[in-house]
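So, can you check these C-alpha cells?
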Amino acid sequence: MRPLGIEGAWVDTPRVFTDSRGRFHEWFRTDRFREVTGHPLRLEQANCSRSVPGTLRGIHYASVPPGQAKYVTCVSGAVLDVVVDVRTGSPTFGQWEAVRLDDREHRAVYVSEGLGHAFMALEEGATVVYLCSHGYVPQREYGVHPLDPALAVEWPADLAPELSEKDAAAPTLAEAGRRGILPSYEECVAHRGRLRAVADGHAAATTPA
C-alpha cells in the first residue's frame, strides 16, 4: 500500500498470479493494512454495485465520528475512482485524486473517515465491491455534487455522466461548507488517532508477559 497525495487515502496494487487456470490475488490483507494505517479495518458492511458506462456515484462521505471508511476494488470491468478532500482545515481541502480500478491490475483504494469518495463506470457491467467500517445511516450520510465546477474533477470526456436523483441534488463543496455539514480535518485526524490507540491497547493486552 502506498499513500496518495491526499492524507488519509492509500492505493494497494497486489501481486497477481497468473497461470493456465486463470488468475489469483489477495485483495485485502489485515496485517498489511494495519502496518500502513496503524489500526485494523473495522468491518460492519460490504457493498457491491454494478453499473453501465457513465454511471457516476458520489461524491459521498459521512459525518465524523464515526464516519465511514471504505476499502474499494473493481472485480469486473473498470471504473475511475476518485478521492476528494472535503475536510475543512485540511492542507489539501478541495483537492482530488483519481485511480483507475479494473479487473486487470486489481488495485484497491482505501478512503479513511471524512474523505469524499466517488467513481464513474468506464465499461459495461463495471462491478465495484467495498468494505465499510460502519453501516449506512441516512442521518449522518452526506454528499457533494460530483460535477461541482470549483472541484473540476476530470471525469472522462467521452462518457455522459449518469447520476442518481440524490447525487444530482447534492450541494457544491462551497454550499456544503456554508451549511456546516463538512467534516473537519482536525476531528478526522483525532478519530484515526483514537483507532490507533485502541489497536495499540488491544495489542498490549494480548501480548504475553
